[in-house]
Structure formats: C-alpha cells, structure tokens
Specification:
This protein is of the alpha+beta class and about 625 residues long. It has 15 helices and 15 strands. The relative contact order is 0.13. Bound molecules: zinc ion.
Length: about 625
C-alpha cells in the first residue's frame, strides 16, 4: 500500500516536469490518471478527425527471402491504394480498381486492405482507463517534440486491444507514435487470425493538427512463409485536405477578379494550329487540376523546382527551344512510373525516392522530354471536355492511363541517350545505367512496385536500353555501388496537403551488406516537430541559389491551395517563333557522398545513453524506488 503511494508520487514528479512552462500554474494539480484521461480525449478527437477527412491510404508490402549471407532480398510484393473510409470500423475503399471483379494480387496473397487501413491508429475504440492499464516509462524527445512514454495493455487481456508502447507529446497529449500490436481489430491483416506488429507515426502537418502519416510493420513466421522469411510493409497516409474539395461549398464563394476573366487571346479568332494547341492545353489543365483535387499530385514546390532545374539543363545543353515550356510534377504514389500530361512531365514519388543520383533523375526526365521532342501524342484531347473529369477518384488513375506503343518507347529511349550525351550528366551515366539494371533485375520479383499504373514502364518496353549496356555489372557485394536507394528514402510528404520536401541526406552509403537495400522497404523515422516552430528538418540544406537574373526555372508557379474557386481563364497562347533556349542553371547536388575513409575509432569515454530509465516507475519495487 505504502509502496503504491510512493510510486504515484514519483510518477507525479515526472509528469509535473513534463508539462510546459505556460501551464505551470495548473501543473501542480495534474495526476497520472488525469494525464491519461487527456490522452484518451485527444486520441478520440484524432480518430473523429481522421474519419471525417478520409485520407488517402497506400500500403506496400514485400515478402523477403530467408537470410542468405546476412541479406534478405525482397521476393514478392503487394500494393493497395485507396481512401480510408468508415463502415463499422476503418476500411480501405480501393482506388486503383473500384469495380473490379477479381481480387488484387495482394488479396490473393492473403493480405486484406482493410487491415492496413486499420493500422493508422493503435486502437479505434477508446484508449482510456476503463479499458487500459498503463505505466509511465520515461520521457524522451522524438525529433523536436518532447514526449512521455507509456506502456499500455488492455485490461481484458491481449485479445482486448492494443498491447505496446505509446509516445504522447506533452502539449496537447496526442499520441505521436505507437509501437506494438492490436489483436482486436475488425479484420485481420493477413489471412487468418494473425495480427501484424506496427510502428505508427503521426506528424504535425500543415493544418496544425497531429495526423497519422506513416506505419511500418514487420513480421516473421507467418502462415505460408518459410522459416526466416520476413513480411515488411509500409502504410502511408496523406491527402487529408482533399475531401473538402468535393464539398458543394466551392460554389458558394465564386469571386470574379476583374482582370483575369477576359480571355487572354483578345485578337479575334485563332488559327487552326493555335486552336489545336489551346485545345491540348485545356485538356492538360483539366487532368492536372483533377489529379490535384484528388490529392494524387503534389502541389508544386521545392522538389518540382529541382526537377525543373534538371529539365532546364537538359534543354540548355541540347539547344532545345520549345514553343511552350515543359514543367515537372510529382504523383504522390509509390510505384515507379512516369508519364506526360501535355507539357507537364509527371514522375511518381516512389520513382524519385529510389533514384541514386542526379544523373539518373536526368535520365528519368529525359525520357518524358523525349516524347515531347519527338512529337508523340502527349495527352488525349478527349479530356478537353469538362465532363470527362467528372468521375470519382477511384476511376481517375485508370481513366487517365495512356499506355504507349513499343515503337514510341524505343524511339524515346534512343533520344534519351542522345540528350544525356550532350548534357552536364554525360560523365555520370554509369549510375543511370546501373539503376536501369537493378530495376530490370527486380521487375519480375516486384511487379507491383515496378509496373506503371498510369504511364511508362521505368525501363521501357524493350527492357534493354543502351545506358544499361554501357553500365558496369551489378556487384551486390560492393558497398560503394549504390544502384538504387531503399523505398521512401528521398521525399518527405506533408500528410495534410501532399507538399514535398527533399531529404538530402538520403543517399548515405551503406555500412554493411545488411544496409544495402536497393528497392527494399526499411523502417523510416519521421522528424517530428510543431508547425511554425523551427527551421525545416536538419537534413535539409538550402538550394544553391541561381545567379541573377533568375533562370526560367525559378518562376515555377506554386499551385494555390485554396478550395477551388472559379479558374482564371488564361490559357497562354503559344508564341510562334518566340521560343528560346533556356540558360544553364546551377544544379542542386544530389550526388552520393564520397566513401568515407574508415579509421578505427579512438578509445573514448562511453557516451551517456539516453534516455535513462526510471527504474522505480518501471519496476515499482521498493528497492528500485528507494534509490
Ligand atoms: Zn515513354
């Protein structure tokens, strides 16, 4: 009895210290139970928010080989893309194939999409004192966020809910990370009654609220798996702001701005050629706008500027003058692919994520640029009719899909080599060739990752580019050869609006075979911070600024994030004969760091291991507490 009281006092001391200074006057009354009640309330509110916002959920799953020489290679993969919906519990409304008759490849392998949607919270029922036992373990920092760490267990036994650890930030008492397993979700995630362990993260996003953003899960010894095989998956959530765009309210606040309503032409009837170009441009705008609205296309920003710089450099060194400039945008999904929507060149986030360096990025962009230069059909003009885009998000990807002829792909691949040979990247093409080699090698094993859902196959239809034949052999045991990065290594997505940030430390050289994981799922650690509080993550460096006058790439329009109002009718007309070759712009460095000279470390004092565990709070014994 006395011991129990003592433990509570210690807990109380810990908690009082955890409350921020602004709340200092109230902290003296806070008991552990009251803190846990606040956690319960914040979590209930978060779940209500997620249910209302219906974010996009993407699950990508890899099953690995048993370990050979310390390496587990991904052998089979599955993929789900949908929206988080609520039918008596969290479910995933699949986006890729809404009216499908057959099960997807992932379902045939025994995975259930609803199970992955359910991973976005530790427990969709309440996490409160009525259902849970809790124990405060310690305090620690996650990124820039101070968190209290609790171990929780369902009172009804392991089958009653989530067992594991939760990290609670100490300002608004939101759960920001959870790590464990919930054995009480509606559907299992894998075949029968097997539940996968999850490590889930919430990110404080553009909305100023904590939102589920990323879940890593890993399991061995599942039914149907060989001993030593591992199932790894990552679940990503974003597009929380997009459901609002579907509301009727967009029509309640139409504003006419005097200057922009007028058609930009104003010079009488257009020539047939100019009309045709305008028609294609209108189709392009319709598709881009629809993809943005669905939350599938990232708003243009820092990353797009990097892509545009590379595009610019390809054009400048090849003396290319286009009537209308090309721009790059990013599709937010993981499968590796690229395509054109008119003069907008789209690369998927997953594609950019795994590219080892700038030369391979140039190769990816050069491929789509080649389609433009070769006069291939860049967009289906049926999309110039407004009704063609009045479709649900679920049908969107399939509707805009535009497979190309093998003949066109081969011509583009040949053009790529020509463009790159005259570019600033010509000395570094070995890495681009190596990337193509690893993708070709893995594309049979990982068809869900390396298969276009909308556009072009990464290695083309022929599967054998000249860049590959020029590249050296793949050397799996060579740690200095990095043909492709692990999945999710480069881009950080803001879950609220899909805004992208570049993680420039992505291309760290692996230290061991175990760390060399091209195209494999690895755990990711989001950098947690409160919005508007500090500089961007430490990994991000400033882009080298272009020398004045700014090159064309500096004028990328950032798409406005407001709920769509009436679009300004301002389709710029092609200026016949007015095209100019862009100037070469400074290139941001995306290169691999040089191999570090490895020297044996000097003997040093053992650094303090953080954070120290409060033995008293953990063990609760007299011996532990009396120290
Ligand atoms: Zn192509």
């Amino acid at each position: 009895m006395q011991r129990h009281r003592f433990v509570s006092l210690i807990l109380f001391g810990l908690l009082a210290a955890a409350v921020p200074a602004a709340d200092a006057q109230t902290s003296s009354q806070v008991t552990p139970d009251q803190v846990f009640d606040k956690v319960a309330q914040a979590e209930a509110e978060l779940i209500e928010r997620v249910r209302g916002l219906r974010p996009i959920v993407e699950a990508y799953i890899q099953e690995t080989s048993p370990e050979v020489d310390g390496v587990q290679m991904p052998m089979v993969d599955s993929y789900f893309l949908g929206r988080l919906d609520w039918r008596d519990g969290p479910v995933m409304s699949l986006m890729a194939d809404a009216r499908r008759a057959e099960k997807s490849a992932g379902e045939r392998r025994g995975f259930l999409p609803d199970g992955f949607a359910a991973m976005a919270a530790p427990d969709w029922k309440s996490i409160d004192r009525a259902r849970y036992k809790y124990k405060l373990v310690r305090r620690e920092f996650l990124g820039e966020v101070r968190a209290m760490v609790f171990d929780i267990e369902p009172k009804a036994g392991p089958e009653g809910g989530f067992s594991g650890r939760i990290w609670v930030e100490d300002r608004t008492f939101n759960i920001v990370r959870y790590n464990g397993v919930n054995r009480n979700v509606k559907g299992p995630r894998f075949r029968k009654k097997v539940y996968l362990h999850v490590d889930g993260w919430r990110v404080n996003s553009g909305s100023g609220q904590w939102l589920p953003a990323y879940v890593h899960c890993e399991e061995a010894g599942l039914e149907g798996q060989v001993k030593g095989q591992l199932v790894r998956s990552q679940v990503k959530l974003w597009g929380y702001n997009t459901t609002k765009a579907d509301d009727q309210q967009q029509f309640t606040s139409i504003q006419f701005s005097e200057s922009s309503v007028q058609d930009a032409s104003g010079q009488g009837q257009l020539t047939p050629v100019a009309s045709q170009r305008r028609w294609e441009q209108e189709a392009e705008l319709n598709v881009i706008e629809r993809l943005e609205k669905a939350g599938l296309l990232a708003p243009a920003g820092e990353v797009e500027r990097v892509l545009d710089t590379v595009l610019n450099n390809l054009q400048a060194t090849n003396d290319i003058a286009l009537e209308r400039p090309v721009r790059a945008r990013v599709l937010l999904t993981s499968p590796l692919e690229s395509f054109t929507v008119g003069h907008t060149l789209v690369l998927s986030r997953g594609f950019i994520d795994v590219l080892p360096d700038e030369a391979s990025l140039a190769m990816a962009l050069a491929h789509e640029l080649s389609h433009v230069l070769l006069g291939h059909n860049l967009i289906d003009t049926k999309f110039a009719f407004a009704d063609r885009m009045m479709i649900g998000d679920a049908e969107l990807m399939r509707t805009i899909a535009m497979p190309r002829l093998a003949k066109e792909e081969a011509a583009a691949d040949a053009k790529v080599v020509e463009l790159l040979d005259r570019s600033p990247y010509k000395e570094k093409l070995a890495s681009a060739g190596l990337f193509l080699r690893i993708v070709a090698e893995r594309s049979k094993l990982l068809p869900e990752l390396i298969q276009p859902h909308v556009g072009d196959h990464v290695i083309g239809k022929a599967g054998q580019s000249e860049l590959m034949t020029r590249a050296p052999e793949l050397k799996p045991a060579d740690l200095t050869q990095v043909p492709a990065l692990p999945i999710g290594a480069r881009l950080v997505v803001d879950p609220w609006d899909g805004r992208l940030e570049l993680l420039r430390s992505a291309a760290a050289l692996p230290g061991s075979m175990r760390e060399k994981m091209p195209l494999a799922i690895t755990p990711l650690t989001p950098h947690l911070r409160y919005p508007g509080e500090s500089a961007p993550p430490l990994q991000t460096r400033q882009l080298p600024l272009a020398a004045a006058p700014a090159p064309p790439v500096a004028s990328v329009e950032v798409a406005p994030l407001v709920v769509p109002s009436l679009r300004d009718v301002e389709l710029s007309l092609p200026q016949l004969g007015g095209a100019q070759v862009p100037a070469l712009a400074p290139v941001p460095d995306l290169v691999l760091p040089p191999a570090p000279a490895v020297a044996p470390p000097n003997v040093q004092a053992v650094p303090q291991v953080v954070p120290a565990v409060d033995r008293c709070a953990v063990e609760g014994t007299d011996a532990a507490c009396s120290r």
